[in-house]
């Protein structure tokens, strides 16, 4: 047999260290040993760890964090499985449809039902026709807001791609909320990067129609919000104006905790299927979930008033991946969380500021690293691209991207274009030149990538 070893150091959390073996197999002393068959069982060989020493040391220290992630994955997998069973999912649901989608075999309805149950919502609409998280969020906001209403962002500035949707940045008359007479305010973050609870206490007015909460950090150097933080914010908002609707941008947060925002009072959430809930295999799509009347209104913005949720075709090969990707999501999110722990541990050990800090609780899958210079940011992204399974031979180039105010560089050698549930990173070319890392089908992928990164920064 062959033995895979991290030489003299453990390179894997201790709870994974014992391989299955029969009673007569020899005992081999190492904390990272995987039994591999060879032609000559009497002369085992050793395959040394593919990780650089910094990664080996970091993984050794993350035993309890990795174990906690495994427990989270088990919990979330159980509730996803239960939702699939309750919807009585069968192979006929994967058949898809064409044209108007009127002859659809029930997959659309079943998928909506599953999403609603998983997220604790009254209903949901899950469609391949949402082509990004921004698109799904936009449909939700336009469903809620009318001329003269006020939108209040309670977690500081929204993500860059929402600035033109809201009208914070000029949309050149293309139909932002501001163009339609919707007013906008935002509550700045506190000095520690979290919600400013003192300001929030008096921020909601009688005319505030919707409070927008962005769960993830976006391109801001701030804390991502826990569901507990979101619950506290919702209670504070509703205490000031019980009619104010709460909309949560749920991108990057799905399955990172054991509960979701609708379970603590959010009226509506929205997100993308090429992020967490697509399980790395959904090729496109997004979702809106929450109160039934609000989901129906968002569906009318995606389609048209009177059409709602009962239309829209999805090819069968796509429909199957939406179901399968959702089932895989808890596991894929778990691996991304482990990857974020590893990035933080290694980069912090090299003197870089990281957000979240090493071993801190995770509330989304994003790990930010402040690199300090344009050159380091470019080098980091180039190293990630070189280490990717797709387009590893290309060099990412910073440039203008639709929806972004600053130049942005993306490293995404992914199977699904733009997928951030797969291993990827990106960042705006502006101070403090931070890179935002996310995704990964297994934590070991980030372990390998970090070795390449450490060569160049």
TrEMBL record:
Pfam families: Met_gamma_lyase. InterPro entries: Met_g_lyase_put, PyrdxlP-dep_Trfase, PyrdxlP-dep_Trfase_major. Transmembrane segments: none annotated. PANTHER family: CYS OR MET METABOLISM PYRIDOXAL-PHOSPHATE-DEPENDENT ENZYME (PTHR46658:SF1). This is Aluminum resistance protein. It comes from Trapa incisa.
């Amino acid at each position: 047999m062959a033995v895979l070893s991290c030489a003299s150091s453990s390179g894997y959390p201790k709870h994974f260290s014992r391989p299955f073996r029969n009673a007569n197999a020899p005992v081999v002393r190492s904390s990272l040993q995987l039994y591999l068959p060879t032609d000559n069982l009497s002369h085992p060989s050793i395959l040394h760890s593919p990780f650089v020493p910094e990664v080996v040391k970091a993984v050794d220290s993350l035993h309890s964090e990795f174990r906690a992630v495994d427990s989270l994955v088990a919990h979330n997998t159980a509730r996803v499985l239960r939702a699939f069973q309750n919807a009585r999912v069968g192979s006929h649901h994967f058949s898809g449809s064409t044209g108007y989608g009127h002859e659809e075999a029930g997959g659309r309805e079943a998928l909506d039902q599953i999403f609603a149950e998983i997220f604790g919502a009254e209903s949901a609409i899950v469609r391949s026709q949402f082509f990004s998280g921004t698109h799904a969020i936009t449909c939700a906001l336009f469903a809620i807001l009318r001329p003269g209403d006020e939108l209040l962002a309670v977690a500081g500035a929204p993500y860059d791609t929402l600035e033109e949707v809201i009208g914070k940045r000029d949309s050149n008359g293309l139909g932002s909320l501001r163009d339609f007479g919707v007013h906008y305010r935002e509550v700045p973050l506190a000095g520690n990067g979290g919600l400013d609870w003192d300001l929030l206490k008096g921020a909601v007015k009688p005319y505030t129609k919707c409070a927008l909460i962005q769960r993830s950090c976006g391109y801001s150097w701030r804390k991502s919000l826990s569901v507990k933080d979101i619950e506290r914010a919702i209670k504070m908002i509703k205490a000031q104006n019980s009619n104010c609707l709460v909309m949560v941008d749920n991108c990057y947060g799905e399955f990172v905790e054991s509960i979701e925002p609708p379970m603590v009072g959010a009226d509506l959430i929205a997100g993308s299927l090429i992020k967490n809930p697509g399980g790395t295999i959904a090729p496109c799509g997004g979702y809106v979930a929450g109160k039934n009347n609000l989901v129906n209104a968002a569906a009318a913005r995606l389609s048209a008033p009177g059409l709602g949720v009962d239309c829209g075709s999805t090819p069968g090969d796509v429909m199957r991946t939406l179901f399968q990707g959702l089932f895989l999501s808890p596991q894929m999110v778990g691996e991304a969380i482990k990857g974020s722990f590893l990035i933080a541990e290694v980069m912090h050990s090299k003197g870089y500021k990281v957000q979240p800090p090493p071993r801190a609780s995770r509330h989304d899958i994003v790990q930010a690293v402040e690199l300090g210079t344009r050159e380091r940011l470019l080098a980091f992204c180039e190293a990630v691209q070189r280490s990717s399974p797709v387009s590893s031979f290309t060099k990412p180039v910073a440039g203008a991207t639709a929806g972004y105010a600053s130049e942005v560089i993306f490293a995404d050698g992914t199977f699904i274009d733009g997928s951030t549930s797969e291993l990827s990173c990106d960042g705006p070319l502006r101070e403090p030149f931070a890179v935002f890392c996310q995704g990964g089908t297994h934590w070991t992928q980030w372990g390998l990538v970090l070795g390449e990164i450490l060569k160049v920064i």
